[in-house]
Amino acid sequence: MTFLRLLARNRLALAGLVVMAAVVALALVTPLLPLAPPNVTDTGNRFLPPFSEGAPLGTDHLGRDLLSRLLWGTRLSLAVGFAAALIAAVLGAAIGIVAGYYRGRIDNVVMRGVDMLMAFPYILLALAIVAALGPGLMNALIAVAAVNVPFFARNIRGITVGIANKEFVDAARLSGLSDARIILTEVLPNVVPVIVIAMSTTVGWMILETAGLSFLGLGSQPPVADLGSMLGEARSALITNPHTSVVPGLMILVIVMAINLLGDGVRDALDPRLRSGALSRPMAATRVDRGDRVPPPADPEAVLALEGLETQFHVGKRVFRAVGGVDLSVKPGECLGIIGESGSGKSVTALSVMGLVPSPPGVITAGAARFRGEDLVGMPYGRLREKRGRSVAYIFQDPLATLHPLYRVGDQLVEAIRAHRPIGRAEGRARAVELLRAVRIPNPEDRVSNYPHEMSGGMRQRVGIAMALANDPDVIIADEPTTALDVTVQAQILSLLDDLRRSRGLAIVFITHDFGVVGQLCDRVAVMYAGRIVEEGPTRAILETPRHPYTARLIDCVPELGQGRRRLEAIPGLPPAVDRLPEGCAFAERCRNARPDCRAGDIPLEREGTRAVRCLHPETHPEREAAE
Amino acid sequence: MGRYILGRLVSAVPVLFGITVIVFLIMALIPGDPATAILGAYATPENVAKINRDLGLDAPLVLRYFNWLGNMLTGDFGTSFSLNRPVLDEVLERFGATLILAGSAFVLCAVFGIAAGVVSAANQYGAADKAITFAVLLGISIPSFFLGMMMILGFAVTLRWFPVSGMWPIYGDRDLWALLDHLAMPAVALAVVATGVVARLSRSAMLEVLRQDFIRTARAKGVHERGVIWRHALRAAMVSIIPVLGIQAGFVLSGAVYIEIVFQWPGIGRMLVNAILTRDILLVQGGVVFVAACYVLFNIAVDVAQSLLDPRIRT
Ligand code: SF4
């Protein structure tokens, strides 16, 4: 049902459907219409122009009524096109199902044959078949159908292989059903939709192909004419009487276009990626729509400061508040950790800084991100681009996916430099080697010409770090840079980052879900939950005396040394969906301290000295606090 | 690299072999016998028998196939009875003309198709995207032979920009300029459908790639959006565009048959259609096998290009 509704929503597809229905209806009623006989010649009235009396579309070179010939020809073309599609689909599906269901030898032989047939440019095969059978509409139909059988066979085989491996088919087999029964009752129903789609996208081609063969004089033979042979016969009078060509030509165009529109509509309606908007292209920078609500600058010492940052995802009518008002800042040489579960908004916060949140669907709806006092949000693209990589650089999680797979790592490093200043070949290479050495990659002279897939995960991440360092940025935002790596490599990367920070005075924003990592590297830490900061303060203090119940639970999840990994899922329950945030505290559902007032209204982030917490009933640590 | 090419060439041998078998079998199914077709009114039983002996048609099927194959391997494709000249000579001459036509159309469809797809994807849902999408729809729906006829009417007859048909001027020099003048319309008419298909696929391949993480990396390091689109995204999208170019080459070669008829281009497609109408079987066989073989070789070239582009499959 949703399928039909989606199809109806696609206006172009609907137009295609309407036109197609009209053409088919016209073709069906043609014998009933009061038309002149299509094949009776009248040499006295040759080449009458359109709008002549008794011949609304004029007459052809033998004085035959064009309107009548057009409608009869359309009827024939449609019939042949659909018949060819049907034959090709049935034969192709039969072959594909048998090959895909039985696999083994049969499959091998059949698919070899299919590959062989597909090695031909289709017309050669069609011509060879027509050459063998002789010209004629029936033979052209057979040729066009035959040429398209391999296409159907290959598609359907692929689907069948997938189905034949499913449990319900195994179950049917074990219960003793015959292969024929299983194919008819289990496989076929699943294959039919695929056949229909394949037909809807190829029937236009079939009509074109048969029309083409007729056009060449190899299809329908005089005096009977389909649209193709009408066009073929009209060709000799193209210059003197173009209307005889235009009439059938336009008809083919209209039919094929209507079918294509419809076919596209069917395909789109069935493509889940289109429905979810997963195929839309992210723009060069995140969309900003914050009206004139720009907060005043604060914290002059900070190299990077976020103020009331809000980033949302707009998907259809739903609004996901991924980041709901975040204030943060880092000073030069400082390392700030942002920690939270996946979906807490920590990565979106990080990506918002340089406008890297994919848009659509992302929109920055409020707040500011200031680099040395200058607001990056809403900055014109040209200026923002200049800052990317030079002022604030990123290190991402999975370096296999984040490095370009088809360029050598050296070239990718040079490109990062070249984005900000011109650099010659030799100098670029030298600089790339230098960068690789700086991140402690052995044999950097050889490694520069490696492709990413030729390196190990740890080495790739070092390349990622080298690329972030390429332009001596002031801030590096590292988005879970060690998550994809194993523990020893992880430790190496962390100590590398720490050294770089100390030697270069870098400010680092380190995003992670792991308090263990935060403890090794960060001076300060901010804990995020459901798009907001719930606790913030010096790392030592928070690790020792977490106030927010969520922070406390996160810290409990850190594995003791040598006990292997424990994951965050250890906290029961899930974070709330950010398009339906509850009233009051977002953590209330999972909180062991929750009381009714927690759900009553918004809870502010209360600051107290160097620490801040967003909780009405924070954890207490009497024993430790007493010790202090 | 050399090993890769060699491997692909070796793997093409069974395909080429299969092609000859298929062509031969189709031709062997011919109802009626070619001798009668050749002799026409002179088809006395003695003459028919003689022709059959001359053509080796009295031998068993398998033997006939290997005879034919063996002869072809030594460059003997037989003699066309309607043209009274060796099939191979005729095929080579005609194929040259087709290669010029189809080759230029292929270049056009690759360049403009990819460019249109990239521009379309880069402006998704924008005005350029909508215009291109509509043009593509029109392009893939219009029969190339009809388009060719309308182009003749518009650009040759009415505007007189280009000659109506043929490959060379009847009088005057056969220089490059004259060739381009004659080539322009048929090449464009032939390229239109394939351009549409390539544009469509390039657009979706680009959209797929533009969502990937390495694009975000390129942006994060400050690469200009132009570089992101044309250097990063297109390079990665080419991996899925190139195989489609290979398939489109087949479509261009197929479409050339119609275009050669419409524009009176002396190519192999027109030769094949005439050969079918005159039932010149040897000429059809030879032409089909030759073109199919060239197509297979071309696809190997496509695979090699693919491996040059993608270091991950080059092993
Ligand atoms: S505000 Fe209430 S529900 Fe929320 S974390 Fe604090 S105690 Fe728990």
UniProtKB/TrEMBL annotation, chain A:
Phylogenetic lineage: Bacteria, Pseudomonadati, Pseudomonadota, Alphaproteobacteria, Rhodobacterales
Domain ABC transmembrane type-1: from-to ranges: 74-263
One Pfam family here: ABC_tran
NCBIfam families recorded: oligo_HPY
Family named by the database record: Belongs to the ABC transporter superfamily. Belongs to the binding-protein-dependent transport system permease family.
Membrane-crossing residue ranges in chain numbering: 12-33, 76-102, 114-134, 187-208, 245-263
Protein name as catalogued: Peptide ABC transporter permease
Membrane topology term: Peripheral membrane protein; Multi-pass membrane protein
Subcellular location: Cell inner membrane; Cell membrane
SMART domains named among the record's database cross-references: AAA (SM00382)
Domain of life: Bacteria
Cellular-component GO terms for this entry: plasma membrane
Gene Ontology terms, MF aspect: ATP binding; ATP hydrolysis activity
InterPro entries named in the record: AAA+_ATPase, ABC_Ni/Peptide_Import, ABC_transporter-like_ATP-bd, ABC_transporter-like_CS, MetI-like, MetI-like_sf, Oligopep_ABC_C, OppC_N
Organism of origin: Roseivivax isoporae LMG 25204
Keywords: ATP-binding, Cell membrane, Membrane, Nucleotide-binding, Transmembrane, Transmembrane helix, Transport
TrEMBL record, chain B:
TM ranges: 12-30, 95-119, 131-162, 182-201, 236-261, 281-302
UniProt GO cellular component terms: plasma membrane
Domain ABC transmembrane type-1 positions: 95-301
Keyword Protease: no
Domain of life of the native organism: Bacteria
Compartments (UniProt record): Cell membrane
Topological type in the membrane: Multi-pass membrane protein
Location, primary (coarse class): membrane
Entries under Pfam families matching the protein: BPD_transp_1, BPD_transp_1_N
Keywords annotated in UniProt: Cell membrane, Membrane, Transmembrane, Transmembrane helix, Transport
InterPro entries hit by this protein: BPD_transp_1_N (IPR045621), MetI-like (IPR000515), MetI-like_sf (IPR035906)
CDD domains the UniProt entry points to: TM_PBP2 (cd06261)
Keyword Transmembrane helix appears in the UniProt entry: yes
Molecular function (Gene Ontology), one example: dipeptide transmembrane transporter activity
Gene3D superfamilies xrefs: MetI-like (1.10.3720.10)
PANTHER family the UniProt entry points to: DIPEPTIDE TRANSPORT SYSTEM PERMEASE PROTEIN DPPB-RELATED
Homology family: Belongs to the binding-protein-dependent transport system permease family.
Protein name: Glutathione ABC transporter permease
Protein source organism: Roseivivax isoporae LMG 25204
